[in-house]
Write a structure and sequence with these properties.
2 helices; 48% helix; GMP Synthetase, Chain A, domain 3; three-stranded mixed sheet
């Protein structure tokens, strides 16, 4: 893994730590899985794993924040 990739992964994990309390307040959580071809893969767990609003949380919340703070990231996808 290159230094740039390591820095991006660290930044993404920091962002997830910032977002985590909001997700946990609704009974869910988010886990970092990997970055592949500038796409971040995460796992939504707890109440988020079966929630009808999880796609909205993923795209309008998590993805928007990560792409805003890490412009090299092009998308965030959920992994089961």
């Amino acid at each position: 893994m290159s230094a740039n990739a390591t820095n991006t992964e660290e930044k993404v994990k920091e962002i997830l730590e910032q977002i985590r309390p909001y997700i946990q307040s609704d009974g869910g959580d988010v886990e970092f899985v990997r970055i592949e071809e500038n796409v971040v893969y995460i796992r939504l767990v707890g109440a988020c794993s079966g929630c009808a609003s999880s796609l909205l949380t993923l795209k309008s919340g998590i993805e928007r924040k990560i792409v805003e703070d890490c412009p090299e990231i092009v998308a965030v996808e959920a992994e089961n």
